[in-house]
Write a structure and sequence with these properties.
Length: 565
Amino acid sequence: MRRPGDAWLRVFPGAALALFLAPIGAGLLYTWLPAFGWFPALGGDRLTLAHWREMLATPGLGDSVRLTLTSGVLATLIALVIVVGFVAAAQGTRTIARVRRFLAPLLAVPHVAVAIGLAFLIAPSGWAARLVSPWLTGWEVPPALIIVQDPYGLALTAALVIKEVPYLFLMTLAALDQTRADKRLAVARSLGYGPVTGWLKTVLPAVYGQIRLPIYAVLAFSLSVVDVALVLGPGTPPPLAVQVFRWFNDPDLTLRFVGAAGAALQLLLVAGAILAWHLCERAAMRLGRHWIAAGGRGGPAPVARAGAKTAMLAVHALSLAGLVVLAVWSLTGRWRYPDPLPASWSLDTWNRQLDNIWLTGSTTLICGLVAAGIALVLTLGCLENEQRNQARPTGRALWLLYLPLLVPQVSFLFGAQVLAVRAGLDGTWPALVWSHLLFVLPYLFLSLADAYRALDGRYPRAALCLGARPGRVFWRVKLPMLARPILFAFAVGFAVSVTQYLPTVFAGAGRFATFTTEAVAQAGGGDRRIAGVFALLQALLPLAVFAAAIALPAWLFRNRRALEG
């Protein structure tokens, strides 16, 4: 039953949509107009295709597009296969519970930290080569191998797989709870199907529909990532998103037109890839129906289980090894190849960077807390509006929520910067927080929505029957009971803010530096010690917030067993 006093809650959905749909729409408009020559501030006062021709004639553009497609599609496909294979092999066992415990730390580690850690690990002079040299390889000097920034983008693909597997795993776990996977699998086992085959035939068709949008988001991100590609991707030619970013940052302002055309091409490329993936889904569905109807009950289950578990273990091991090598390099005094460990340890690098750490750290912390805080207020308002005003979420609303994750950042952030300049907000704190909020809000909402909607409605109804007003029920019943998922969602939003590179560069106009921008800048500077310091800090700050999100409810409700978790 709707209450007249609850009508004000309907403001929250509109405000949330306006906060990220308006800049995306305006950003796309102010990007596509310069792509066709209309940008009066730079002398573009007529529509033309000349900038498209100039962009398409760029040497190596075809290789950039090929590299973008191969690395992005391959990373998404490999991550999906690892997650599906692992869940199919481990469904109903303690292994999933063990992996779930490490989910928050893996989600907290930013993409750039993973990329820099992987680069320090697998480079010809990296830690992996040092551990096996010269006793196994015979290498007294680093081999002449192109492993990092290889022309095929294999290192870039590997980093994307390592980072996207935890996200897809989290989305799959959430989908399992909504599809009664245990019951489906139990029925399949009773009919004689093996565990892996039974899961693939009965659970996967229901689960995949729930994780389709997250998969599209992973595909869009992998096709348009800039910061990870700057660290691990080839430089000549680079992936398309990096090339567009270079055009936008070139001292020659006329290249802004070419950059806008490149950004439009990037958007078309991502849209085409998502459409092609969707067509492949439909083809796989037809083939899958024939496979399911054929009735085969067995298969190479032991091999599949071993392979899936090994792949998931490798993802965890590489993430952990990357963090360890970042810490080692940040404390290194002297470390000559092929010594497996530094000859001396020192805090000199940390001491020399204290001022920079304080400046970039305060910006990162303040922006992350404010963006996550605003996103949390909007999310709670939207979810409470759903319940009080009986508003049912629709598929269209979910697509709108995923829009910032499906549209490549580089394809609209330049236009959003133009909008900020017109509004007099370019290079200000509001613009910086707003640009982060575009991506924090969707992730935070998705992290909290299921837990909020799953709260047993008998508790709020009991409080209402005892005379409590809806506002008091929200503050005194719902929030305490949902403290753990709320704090976890806040930590997810904070971690997303920490990872933002392009929004900081465009909205900050060079006036704001964060751990992420500094880590990317130092990764290409040649001093692994400084890069290790900022990449490690970039990883540790979200981890600290996640640790606080886990510890705070346990401390607050230490005397209430029902709320201890």
